[in-house]
Input
Amino acid sequence: MVPEFVNLDMPSLYALIFIVLVGLPHGAFDGAIAAHLAAKQSALNLFKFIGYYLITAALVIAAWVNWPKQMLALFLIISVLHFGWGDATKKSGLPLFTQIVVHGGIPVFGIAYFHPADVKALFDVMTFGASGLAMQLSQVAIPIIICLGVVYAGLALKEKSLRVRFMEFLIVTALVAFLPPLVGFAIYFCLIHTCRHILRIWAMLAKVNSPKVLITQALGYTISSWFLGGLAFLFLNTGSIHSQLVQVIFIGLAALTVPHMILVDGFFRAEKRIH
Output
């Protein structure tokens, strides 16, 4: 694999730190979700959950090392689904589909559209120089997002309940268009996606768990994630601290996002529908 290097400015470095300190911990509530669903029934179930979670994350990293361009493209697609589903307010039909693609697509593919050179450099670092597929995917996605954005505007004009989220879509679009790519993404990921996820999960889990238990569980998983990320950073030797940061943070996010989506968008969302 060919080593790739990137030089980040201070706002972008601060954005990466913001993602690690604020954005990454939102997945730390996965332990509380698992306990809520089944793991609290026995210690064995808890260990099974941790084992499955770590195995899934390790498989993602192994696949990324072997097929980096395909894994980045897949990661972008599942990120669109995860972000969009988290931001959507509708439950079915065209409004739901539109919200998923538009809300999820702008912070993922919109950044590549507005800042192609900067994003290509970041994608090259993540894929060891094989960013072509991800950039092509971005070019295909943008016309779809634009068309559905027009549909979204029409739906928002007709239905008042969609207008607040539509305004949010316009604000996020402006952020990713005018701010450096990592800064725009960090603001969306930390202040919108993470905050919305934590508030939603907290509202449901606090009904059956004490705040102390939830915070303790989240802190435990957060510190563990930071520790593993620190080990990965020390293990890499690319010759560029900035490149190592980008690789550890975003490949690490990919590794955590897959089991996170299975748990949150699969099992937990299914339980919410049942109730």
Q: What stands out?
A: The chain is about 85% helix and 0% strand. The longest helix spans residues 241-274.
